[in-house]
Design brief:
mainly alpha; 4 helices; 64% helix; 0% strand
Length: 139
């Protein structure tokens, strides 16, 4: 027999346990939307710049101006600012991309080896992200 003071099973309901979000997911809603927007815009700019560079390599024609380089490195700066978590790496890539874009703007000319370096560096970066498995969160 149970004593009259013992709680019944209905009284023993516990409130749901709230698990805090991992530290990398504590972004507010608008910050998350800006990161997604930065990923999309940065990737689009990089694609448009890379497409012009790739077609000029395969077609054998010269690029008229530095717009392709400005699109590519501007997109790289936007993408890095949205994606990279480590601040030193993020700002290093962002400042480096802006510096290279301004260098091409000042130089005003794109040589064949410039296009080759950008092409093969992009291929290596894409291959890295294709074969790199994301870390699974600890349960």
């Amino acid at each position: 027999m149970t004593s009259p003071d013992a709680p019944t099973p209905q009284d023993q309901t516990h409130p749901p346990v709230h698990h805090p979000a991992p530290p990398d997911r504590e972004d507010s809603g608008s910050d998350h939307h800006m990161r997604v927007l930065g990923k999309m815009v940065g990737t689009a700019f990089m694609f448009l710049g890379f497409l012009q560079i790739f077609l000029s390599i395969s077609g054998g024609f010269e690029l008229s101006g530095v717009v392709a380089m400005l699109l590519y490195f501007g997109g790289l700066a936007i993408w890095a600012n949205a994606v990279m978590e480590h601040p030193l790496l993020r700002w290093g890539v962002t400042i480096g991309a802006i510096a290279v874009a301004l260098g091409f703007l000042q130089f005003g000319e794109i040589l064949f080896w410039h296009k080759q370096v950008i092409f093969w560096a992009t291929v290596i970066i894409v291959m890295y992200f294709m074969f790199n498995e994301p870390k699974k969160p600890a349960a």
